[in-house]
Amino acid sequence: METHECIVIGGGVSGLVGASRLARAGRSVLLLEAESRLGGCARTWRPRPDFWLELGAHTAYNSYGPLLEALADRGRLGELLTREKLGYRFIDHQGATSSPMTRLGFVEAALHLPFGLGRPKAGRSVAEWFGGLLGKGNYRRLLAPAFAAVLSQPADAFPAEWLFRRKPRMQEAPRKFTFSGGLQGLLEALAEDAPFAVRPGAAVTALTGGRDGYEIRVGDERLACRQLFLAVPVDAAAALLAQVHPQAARILAGFPMASSEALGVLVPADRVGLQPVAGLIGDEDDFWSVVSRDILPHESLRGFTFHFRPGRLDRQGKLDRAAAALGVAPGDFLDVAECLNRLPAPGVVHPPRVAELDALLAGEPLALAGNYLNGLSLGDCAERAAREADRLLNLKES
Ligand SMILES: Cc1cc2nc3c(=O)[nH]c(=O)nc-3n(C[C@H](O)[C@H](O)[C@H](O)COP(=O)(O)OP(=O)(O)OC[C@H]3O[C@@H](n4cnc5c(N)ncnc54)[C@H](O)[C@@H]3O)c2cc1C
């Protein structure tokens, strides 16, 4: 049976940062990814050789330390691309856009801010904490739709402590960046000429074993490892852990998921009247947000990804809504791509459950990384992955 010191399951940011860190320390590492491409939620559509558009994650910051460290290990930091400084605007059903600041009630904000700032976020939902920060009216008009646009799901019940955590910034990197080939390109770069092996198209179907070693099934094939690094979505993690760690699996089974439907459209630049924007925020609309490629302008093309609420519109309905929002006809779209995005939908009960999980796994050669453990952002995932890799590296029997 093929045997490795560490097997990493999942080729999104969590798995790639984990694999980079373990391999850098000299472990023999194999990363298994179910899809034929790496990147997970960083999904870049490439409809033209010189034009790509993000269908998933779109913005990265120089506070994403462990991600940037992994990129620096590959010698690829120089390929970061600075995003144009553009803002987000709200869009109404008639296609009119407005600055988020027009929704801010200054008097209400001034009355709440002095009392709102010092309160701890732990145990409070986004609606509770941010509603206390700027007032309920400001929360409803401005923050609720803006945060739902960020999370591609309703934000009210989300744990406040998992949204916008302050992290140190790497000064050598642009404050906000993307990469040649988009953020999927950045994650692919982590695996190019890397000191670990990667197998795309390898969906793990079962796990057995425990402290003394794990056996991994990929179809009919069996692989073995001493340490296991699980970096898959939470529902997949719950299913895979059922035999090797039933207690952890039971906790994970209680984490809900949300989905959103992405529609990417490519349009001739001269057909769109909309001023350049980073994106648009929908309010009680069919979509949570629209992410634009204007942050890296192209001379003749523009691209927009609409993140639709799930199950509301069929394909034609989405095309019509997207065209109306952009002030064009569906026939103006040069190319269209669709995908389903899935993210965890945690509430305030979940951070304490992660603490429970961490206590259960302490001392075990099993690491858990992913966007359900300390926040959704690529930076949160990279941070957790680095911490878990370091835990495996420091295990006594290692
Ligand atoms: C629409 C959208 C917009 C976002 N925007 C941003 C943003 O702008 N900035 C930001 O920082 N974050 C953003 N995020 C969040 C961020 O992209 C994700 O939370 C993060 O990429 C998750 O990474 P991950 O590696 O934990 O999981 P994933 O990316 O989900 O990767 C898990 C991988 O595991 C694989 N897998 C699953 N089951 C198996 C199996 N049985 N065997 C082998 N492999 C398996 C999957 O195929 C997948 O590749 C966005 C997310 C979405 C969906």
Largest sheet: 7 strands, mixed
CATH architecture title of the domain at 2-42 and 65-79 and 179-256 and 345-393? 3-Layer(bba) Sandwich
SS field, number of helical segments: 11
* Dominant shape: globular
> How many strands in all?
19
Secondary structure blueprint with pairings:
Elements: E1 2-9, H1 13-24, E2 29-32, E3 44-48, E4 51-54, E5 60-61, H2 65-73, E6 80-82, E7 88-91, E8 97-98, H3 106-116, H4 126-134, H5 136-151, E9 176-179, H6 182-191, E10 197-199, E11 206-210, E12 213-218, E13 221-230, H7 234-244, H8 246-253, E14 257-268, E15 279-282, E16 287-292, E17 301-308, H9 315-326, E18 335-344, H10 350-361, E19 366-368, H11 378-393
Parallel strand pairs: 1-2, 1-13, 2-10, 7-15, 13-19
Antiparallel strand pairs: 3-4, 5-9, 6-9, 7-8, 11-12, 12-13, 14-17, 14-18, 15-16, 16-17
Helix pairs in contact: 1-2, 1-11, 3-4, 4-5, 7-8
Bound molecules: flavin-adenine dinucleotide.
Summarize the structure.
The chain is α/β, with parallel strands linked by helices. It is built from eleven helices and 19 strands. Among the domains are: 2-42 and 65-79 and 179-256 and 345-393, FAD/NAD(P)-binding domain (3-Layer(bba) Sandwich), CATH 3.50.50; 101-162, no CATH class.
Description:
By secondary structure, the protein is α/β, with parallel strands linked by helices. Among the domains are: 2-42 and 65-79 and 179-256 and 345-393, FAD/NAD(P)-binding domain (3-Layer(bba) Sandwich); 101-162, no CATH class. It has 11 helices and 19 strands. The strands form 4 sheets. Strands 1, 2, 10, 11, 12, 13 and 19 form a 7-stranded mixed β-sheet that branches. The chain has a 7-stranded mixed β-sheet with strand order 8-7-15-16-17-14-18. A 3-stranded antiparallel β-sheet has the order 5-9-6. Helix 1 (13-24) links the parallel strand 1 and strand 2. Helix 1 crosses helix 2 (65-73). It binds flavin-adenine dinucleotide. Residues 9-15, 32-35, 40-42, 56-60, 152, 203-204, 231-233, 236, 307, 341, 343, 370-371, 376-379, 381 line the site of flavin-adenine dinucleotide.
